[in-house]
Amino acid sequence: MGIPIRFIETLLPSKSRVVRVMPNTPAVVGAGASAFAIGSACLDGDSDKVKEIFTTVGFAVEVPEVHIDPVTGLSGGGPSYVSYKILLTKEI
């Protein structure tokens, strides 16, 4: 499990705007998938700005923080698994 936004917020000055996001390796070639969650002090428009930043390297979507850990597991390991399966298919 990752570090929750609320914990990070306790370590920072009040009203610090925290976003939790984990881009994956396909972002290197502009094909990434990033799910993000925004903290309690984020302002209107912060979500749009985060999405704008991460769509420069692929797909980005805001999700409730409770979904970040499962999404990270899938989007982080999924591309490697698919690449491996494609490689195996190529060898057959």
What keywords describe this structure?
NAD(P)-bd_dom_sf; three-stranded mixed β-sheet; 43% helix; 92 residues; Rossmann fold; 3 strands; elongated; pyrroline-5-carboxylate reductase activity; single chain; 3 helices
Q: Any idea of the CATH topology?
A: Rossmann fold
Counting H and I runs of at least 4 residues, what is the number of helices? 3
Overall pLDDT score: 89
Radius of gyration, in angstroms, nearest whole number: 16 Å
The CATH H-level homologous superfamily: NAD(P)-binding Rossmann-like Domain
CATH architectural category: 3-Layer(aba) Sandwich
Distance between the termini: 37 Å
Number of strands: 3
Biggest sheet, open or closed, and with what strands and sense? 3 strands, mixed
User: Within the largest sheet, what's the order of strands?
Assistant: 1-2-3
Order of helices and strands: HEEHEH
Q: CATH top level?
A: Alpha Beta
Q: What best-fitting shape do the alpha-carbon axes yield? A: elongated
Strand content: 15-25%
Could you say how many structural domains there are in total?
1
Uncertain spans: none
Write the layout of secondary structure elements.
Elements lengths: L4 H7 L7 E3 L10 E7 L7 H9 L3 E5 L5 H24 L1
Parallel strand pairs: 2-3
Antiparallel strand pairs: 1-2
GO biological process, one term: L-proline biosynthetic process
InterPro entries: NAD(P)-bd_dom_sf (IPR036291)
GO molecular function, one term: pyrroline-5-carboxylate reductase activity
